[in-house]
Amino acid sequence: MRHLILALALAATPVAAQEITVEEIATLPEADVVFLGELHDNPWHHENQAAAVRALAPKAVVFEMLTAEAAAQVTPALIADKPALDAALGWAESGWPSFDMYYPIFAAAQGAAIYGALVPREAARDAIMGGDVVAAFGEGADIYGLAAPLGEAEQAEREAGQMAAHCDALPESLLPGMVLAQRLRDATMAREIVRAHDETGGPVVVITGNGHARTDWGAPRLLPDHLSVRSIGQLERTPDETPPHDAWIVTPQAEREDPCAGFKTQ
After folding, report:
1. How far is CA 107 from CA 48, 104, 160, 174, 210, in A?
2. How far apart, in whole angstroms, are the C-alpha atoms of residue 204 and residue 228?
3. Do 219 and 208 meet the contact criterion of CB atoms below 8 Å apart?
4. Element housing 204 (H / E)
5. 3-state DSSP assignment of residue 161
């Protein structure tokens, strides 16, 4: 009993927001859900995620990059065959960065149940165009934060963030829908995390972009109080202000073309 009480105490112990190394992830107090954030095109981030998954040995891994239907196809035998897994997931046509970067995460998760939290493109497009996300999400829309509007300040901040992320090239009329689509993605992710924990007992690791791993308005905020949560972001430079994560790792910057070049030529 003493060991059980100690374990529960450790799991509930808050950790001051701090920069860490990937090796230190396993030394943090245990949590039911651990978000491992990323910049999608940064290979160091995926190397760190794979190392963290090996160290944490979760019962389930939730991938932002997979729909629930795609994740249901993943078996240990399929994970052992990289080309077959690539083909089964249709990764080359998915729009995500190279499967070579993501496959080590799947390999590290061998033995864990695989879940998917990706909102299908059609549903995301409908949300952007002002569709009824409550009806599209179905049961639990109120639980996962979709039934009520955001506060005015948060809505404005999130719209500004969407504009900046798209190189200040979006029509302002699209911004509310872009925010709504992001909220739908967060809600879907939270729902799948809860399902993964209910079905496996956890712990659950979540592979996702840094935005969805934000503790202030991302998927962590939507999880029920009985689940302890740890969010780890990955950055390419030391931040000037404390990021919206419990901890963060700073890595080299990925080589990439100017993300705004396409907008500039339009």
Report:
1. 13, 5, 38, 39, 22
2. 11
3. yes
4. strand 204-207
5. helix
pLDDT, tens only, 131-167: 999 999 999 999 999 999 999 999 999 999 999 999 9
DSSP 68: H
Length of the chain: 266
Query: Residue 232 gets which letter from DSSP?
Result: E
User: Are the beta carbons of 184 and 135 closer than 8 angstroms?
Assistant: no
Please give the Cα distance from 48 to 205 (Å, whole number). Answer: 13
Q: Are 202 and 59 in contact (CB under 8 A)?
A: yes
pLDDT single digits (tens) 93-108: 999 999 999 999 999 9
Compute the distance between CA of residue 188 and CA of residue 145 in angstroms, rounded to an integer. Answer: 10
DSSP 218: S
Six-digit token pair at 208?
A: 């996702």
Contact 39, 254 (CB under 8 A): yes
For 230, the enclosing helix (H) or strand (E) is: strand 229-235
Task: List phi, psi (to 5°) of 108.
Answer: -65, -25
First and final C-alpha spacing in the chain: 65
